[in-house]
Design a protein that fits this description.
Blueprint lengths: L1 E3 L7 H16 L5 E4 L6 H9 L2 E4 L9 E4 L6 H9 L3 E4 L3 H15 L4 E4 L5 H10 L3 E4 L13 E6 L5 H14 L2 E4 L5 H15 L3 E5 L5 H13 L3 E4 L19 E5 L5 H17 L5
The chain binds iron/sulfur cluster.
Iron/sulfur cluster binds next to helix 1, helix 4 and helix 7.
Length: 288
């Protein structure tokens, strides 16, 4: 039996950014339309946007004037200023959950309170947050890294929207022991919390799980981690072309096959994979 997780397809922020980009291009077909970085961590979707004339750039030098769409992860405000000064019309599709973090760290910066950011420093969302927090900020991603912080009497702490909640709690607990006055903001987004919980529950009752999402998608990596802990036969794939039916060899008639999707995976991709698995099982019915 195939069970699909109740939270699948694009999350609210990704859906909003993709729709905004498509509408801008539709309303302005003759003007250039760029996204700063991939709008979605999914190659098929990026390709289909390109076919519609929405081009991904990683550097402003790669583009001529036109619309510049800021993706849901947000960016360093310096990039927005630079784009505006070069004459781009900037469409800010930063997810409101991320925007909230920008506002929090901006406030802390104005009050001269150091900021501790929990997350992956190289991730674009964290790069954007650093830009708003200013120089007095520190990025850590594990309990061990708390020791790398300087002595701080007071600090504000925010967290990457896709962080696993239990990891966040462990790090904050350690910070409480180290910093006397701590302003704690739980900025994990509600969509992430729900998706992680739904994925965990599905993985627990599954014999085999496929987590579908882009190779560079941080939230997909977290879902994989969560699922793998409770279902050892968890596989991460980007799309139906990566589905290896050989891993289905030993499943039984009453086995549960779980399908989980990252926040950048189109819903159609999950249905394609479901159909491919169903087709394989029907064809090999006598063996199962
Ligand atoms: S995962 Fe959450 S914060 Fe990130 S884009 Fe989706 S809704 Fe927004």
């Amino acid at each position: 039996m195939i069970k699909i997780c109740s939270s699948i397809g694009f999350c609210f922020g990704v859906k909003r950014a993709v729709e905004k980009a498509e509408n801008i291009k539709k309303e302005n077909p003759t003007l250039n339309c760029y996204t700063f970085g991939s709008l979605v961590h999914n190659e098929k979707v990026v390709k289909s946007l390109e076919e519609k004339g929405i081009i991904c750039i990683n550097n402003l030098d790669e583009a001529e004037n036109g619309f510049l769409i800021i993706r849901s992860h947000g960016v360093n405000p310096k990039i927005i200023d630079e784009a505006k000064s070069r004459g781009f019309e900037v469409i800010d599709s930063t997810c409101p959950f991320v925007k909230k973090i920008h506002n929090i760290v901006n406030n802390l910066r104005e009050k001269k309170i150091p900021v501790v950011i929990i997350g992956k420093e190289e991730h674009p969302e964290i790069q954007g947050i650093i830009g708003y927090a200013g120089d007095n900020c520190f990025v850590i991603n594990s309990v061990d890294e708390v020791d790398n912080l300087p002595i701080l009497n007071e600090a504000g702490v925010v967290v990457q929207t896709t962080k696993i909640k239990s990891e966040y709690i462990s790090i904050v607990t350690e910070l409480v022991n180290k910093i006397r006055v701590l302003h704690i903001y739980n900025t994990i987004c509600s969509e992430t919390i729900k998706r992680q919980l739904d994925s965990y529950n599905l993985a627990k009752e599954s014999d085999i799980v496929f987590v579908v999402g882009g190779k560079h998608s941080s939230n997909t990596a977290k879902l994989f981690e969560i699922s793998k802990k409770v279902c050892s036969k968890t596989y991460k794939i980007e799309d139906s072309s990566e589905l290896d039916v050989n891993v289905l060899q030993n499943i039984k008639k009453d086995s549960v096959i779980g399908l989980i999707s990252g926040a950048s995976t189109p819903i159609e991709e999950i249905f394609d994979i479901r159909d491919k698995i169903n087709k394989h099982i029907t064809k090999n019915m006598q063996k199962y």
